[in-house]
């Protein structure tokens, strides 16, 4: 008898005799795969964890940077394709400056002049983006080793990654214990990301995932034909260093209006000052969702050739839509593929950039005794 069938009948037998009930189906009990992914320059072993389900989705994640290395999802013809950019080896992730697939912290996006104050005390964080601090500094969470644990259940495979960031790391106050859990449900094609954290001193926190998507498949040309919808009627305009001015500006009649699906490339080269500052889209949209409301659908991208659809759901108030403007063909990614200009886009769910310096933005302060807890889902389907 075929091995899977044997496993299935054993399972059935086990549940019939009532010894242990392992799961709903034989598929759900398939184990997460682990394999060596190489070593960091400092000699730490990196492991690749591959989560899969019976619906044809596979998510590969490494403990270095709690990074999503690949996301394979079916197209309209049920052909699986990898829809995120990445590297073949640890060195790529260690030396790379693009943040492919990584968990970003402590502070996703920019902090102006690398400074902010909490409780009247000023803190300085690394200026690694001109005069500003970007994505947690020089050695952000994307460059750290996380501790991984398989927390799969019959509802889906799940990988929990934890990291303790020391008081003063990259200039941020407080010892911060962070947990990121990636779940691939057994019955639907989505990657759920649960973020949680506690601190022992007042600090600021803004975690996100920096996956670069190309729904036609990574390395398969630019993303200008993808149709994008953002459920956001305002955005936060920026200065030329991409720091918000503090205004919440309506998107109506601007190339920033994605309230109805429109091709990313349709207006990207318009003569617009904000687009010039970003060299394309590299802005935060103010999501039309009420603070504290349950997780909701905030963005959708559709790729007409493959029919792949990505929906983004989140509990966050903002999203950075970045159209891969700094990709310039110099990065050789997976399988040696060249990632050209606008070869991918990011939809980074987040609090607004530079919130610690804008009292009118939703607060990013985390206090001892409180728990930071957010959720984002990348959901895939076809049309
Ligand atoms: C930023 C871009 C930056 C990219 C990669 C995005 O989140 O907004 O300006 O180039 O990350 O670093």
Quick take:
The protein is mostly beta strands. It is built from three helices and 29 strands. Beta-D-glucopyranose (BGC) binds at residues 98-99, 242, 282, 320, 322, 326, 346, 348.
Question: What does this entry look like structurally?
Answer:
The protein is mainly beta and 383 residues long. The chain has helices spanning 3-17, 90-95, 273-278, and strands spanning 33-39, 45-52, 58-62, 67-74, 80-82, 103-104, 110-111, 115-118, 121-124, 133-134, 147-150, 156-165, 176-185, 190-199, 203-204, 208-209, 227-230, 234-236, 249-250, 262-263, 282-286, 296-302, 308-314, 318-322, 331-332, 338-339, 346-350, 365-366, 372-382. The radius of gyration is 21 Å and the shape is globular. Residues 1-28 have low confidence and may be disordered. The protein binds beta-D-glucopyranose. Beta-D-glucopyranose binds next to strand 24 and strand 27.
Poorly predicted tracts of residues: 1-28
Largest sheet: 9 strands, antiparallel
| Total strands | 29
Radius of gyration, in Å, reads 21 Å
Structural class: mainly beta
The molecules bound to the chains, other than polymers, are:
beta-D-glucopyranose
Helical proportion? under 10%
| Terminus-to-terminus distance | 38 Å
Overall form = globular
Strand residue content: 35-45%
Number of helices: 3
Q: Give the strand order of the largest sheet, numbering strands 1, 2, ... along the chain.
A: 11-12-13-14-29-23-22-17-20
* Chain-averaged pLDDT: 93
């Amino acid at each position: 008898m075929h091995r899977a069938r044997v496993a299935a009948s054993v399972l059935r037998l086990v549940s019939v005799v009532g010894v242990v009930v392992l799961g709903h189906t034989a598929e759900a009990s398939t184990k997460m795969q682990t394999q060596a992914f190489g070593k960091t320059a400092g000699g730490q072993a990196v492991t690749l964890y591959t989560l899969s389900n019976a619906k044809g989705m596979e998510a590969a994640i490494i403990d270095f940077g709690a990074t999503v290395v690949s996301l394979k999802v079916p197209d309209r013809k049920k052909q699986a394709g990898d829809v995120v950019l990445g590297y073949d080896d640890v060195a790529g992730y260690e030396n790379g400056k693009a943040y492919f697939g990584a968990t970003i912290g402590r502070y996703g996006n920019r902090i102006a002049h690398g400074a902010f104050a909490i409780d009247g005390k000023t803190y300085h964080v690394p200026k690694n983006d001109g005069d500003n601090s970007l994505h947690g500094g020089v050695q952000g969470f994307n460059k750290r080793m996380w501790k991984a644990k398989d927390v799969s259940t019959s509802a889906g495979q799940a990988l929990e990654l934890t990291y303790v960031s020391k008081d003063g790391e990259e200039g941020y106050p407080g010892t911060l214990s962070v947990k990121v859990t990636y779940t691939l449900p057994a019955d639907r094609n989505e990657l759920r990301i649960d973020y949680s954290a506690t601190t022992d001193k007042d600090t600021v926190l803004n975690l996100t995932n920096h996956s670069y998507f190309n729904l036609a498949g990574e390395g398969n040309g630019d993303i200008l034909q993808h149709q994008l919808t953002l459920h956001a009627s305002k955005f936060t305009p920026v200065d030329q260093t991409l720091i918000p001015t503090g205004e919440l500006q309506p998107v109506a009649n601007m190339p920033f209006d994605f309230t109805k699906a429109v091709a990313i490339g349709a207006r990207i080269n318009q003569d617009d000052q904000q687009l010039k500052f970003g060299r394309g889209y590299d802005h935060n949209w103010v999501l039309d969702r009420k603070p504290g409301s349950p997780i909701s659908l905030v963005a959708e991208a559709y790729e007409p050739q493959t029919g792949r659809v990505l929906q983004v759901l989140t509990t966050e108030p903002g999203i950075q839509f970045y159209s891969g403007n700094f990709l310039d063909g110099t990065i050789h990614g997976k399988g040696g593929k060249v990632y050209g200009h606008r070869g991918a886009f990011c939809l980074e769910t987040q609090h607004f950039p530079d919130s610690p310096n804008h009292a009118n933005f939703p607060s990013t302060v985390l206090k001892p005794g409180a728990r930071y807890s957010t959720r984002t889902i990348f959901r895939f389907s076809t049309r």
